[in-house]
Amino acid sequence: MKIRYALPALAAAAALVLTGCTNNAAEESGGDAPESSSIKPDEAAVALLPAELRDAGTLVIGTDAEYPPNEYKNDKGEPIGWGVDLANAVAAKLGLTPEWEILGFDAIIPRIQEGVVNLGSSSFTDTVERQKSVDFVNFLNAGSLWVAPAGSDVNPDDACGLTIAVQATTVQHTDELPRRDQECKDAGKPGIEIMPFDGQPEVTNAVINGMADAFSADLPVSGDAVAKTGGQLESVGEVFDAAPYGFATEKGSDVTKAVQAALQSLIDDGTYLEILKGAGIESGALTEATINAGEN
């Protein structure tokens, strides 16, 4: 799960605002997502919006765009990926133009609390702790999965003494791998060397280049790495620590209710499943747009 905590370097990073940025999902992100321009607003969802947001006509969406295939950048620096496609579709259902703001991950929730960002779309894992700060409109059941060189004998449950790459400040970095490392040491075995990188591409390359024995990431990210490395990598072990992804919104706000209604409309008309199928992650699809379903 993509649970990140504040890093000074990220917090200090300047934001890049992409006003009115929309992405050509099918062309840019490799999926078959529908164009947002073909999605008609859902009047019931639109009616739930705060008047000032409805009048403004734009939905400011925060993302860190460093987590392919969910959210990442094209060669123009614009956010793309299936998570971007889905957020754009939500905006279309609300009759709003998406305005993307690329931020350090740790800056997104504070900006939502400040009212600067309306929606956080950055593979947020919905957790009880985060629910104290924002609401989450849940859109996917996800989990973690390890990836190693094809033909290796790496076993996530017996990884003592191995070097494991991970994207910095994800839950795999802050929770999972430290827990596994401590279990090894408690059993009198060598610990796990945790090798963090700022972006997932660097994590994947570390395994391909032999710097690390394996990496741990969210299921969609691991699956994408396996699919795009020409047989060099394979998944190992089973999916674990399942938890929901959610769009982050202001706590207790009408925006939360409007986004939930918009997402439910996308589920009901088939657009939602079309986006997930294009990314090959339909196994995590929901039939109901829930709020704050995370229990851990």
UniProtKB/TrEMBL annotation:
InterPro entries documented for this protein: Solute-binding_3/MltF_N
Keyword Repressor: no
Keywords: Signal
Signal sequence annotation: 1-25
A Pfam entry, by short name: SBP_bac_3
PROSITE patterns for the chain: PROKAR_LIPOPROTEIN (PS51257)
Superkingdom of origin: Bacteria
Sequence ranges assigned to domain Solute-binding protein family 3/N-terminal in this UniProt record: 58-279
Protein name as annotated: ABC transporter substrate-binding protein
